[in-house]
Amino acid sequence: MGGGDASQFTASGRRGRLTSQLSNGYILDSGGGVPKQFPIQFTFDLNAAKAKGNWNNPVTSQAETVNVTMTFFKTATVPEGKYYIFYGDKTSDKAGYAFTFLLL
Fold first, then answer.
1. Tens digit of each residue's pLDDT, the chain (104 residues)
2. Do residues 100 and 82 make contact, with C-beta atoms less than 8 angstroms apart?
3. Angle 42-48-54 (CA atoms, 0-180°, nearest 5)?
């Protein structure tokens, strides 16, 4: 799991590109201990509905990269703004991802 700020926007095409900053991933401890925290970096090409992430896995000490095709799921409006929710089940690492963006 992970989370962070993807507020670095670059205008391009119809939708643009977002880059994460100050984002962290977490690996849960199977023994119930404290999760391992590590920095993650994602870029989101909103024109192509693609995401690319990279991080250093704290368990294996190896660099990891993933490419994700994002599929729009739904929006949700709350007092803070409008959420855009995507999922990615077409990935280079065969994992599943969920991305939620809050438009402020």
1. 788 788 889 999 999 999 998 799 998 888 999 999 999 999 999 999 999 999 999 889 999 999 999 999 999 999 999 999 999 999 999 999 999 998 87
2. no
3. 20
> Which candidate, 55, 87, 53, places its Cα nearest to that of 67?
53
Distance separating alpha carbons of residues 97 and 86, to the nearest angstrom: 8
Q: What is the largest CA-CA distance in the chain?
A: 47
Domain count, the chain: 1
- Identify each DSSP E strand in the chain by its residue range: 2-10, 17-27, 36-45, 50-56, 63-78, 81-91, 97-103
Cα-flanking dihedrals φ and ψ of residue 29, to 5°? -85, 120
- Full strand arrangement of the beta sheet holding 36-45: 2-10, 17-27, 36-45, 50-56, 63-78, 81-91, 97-103
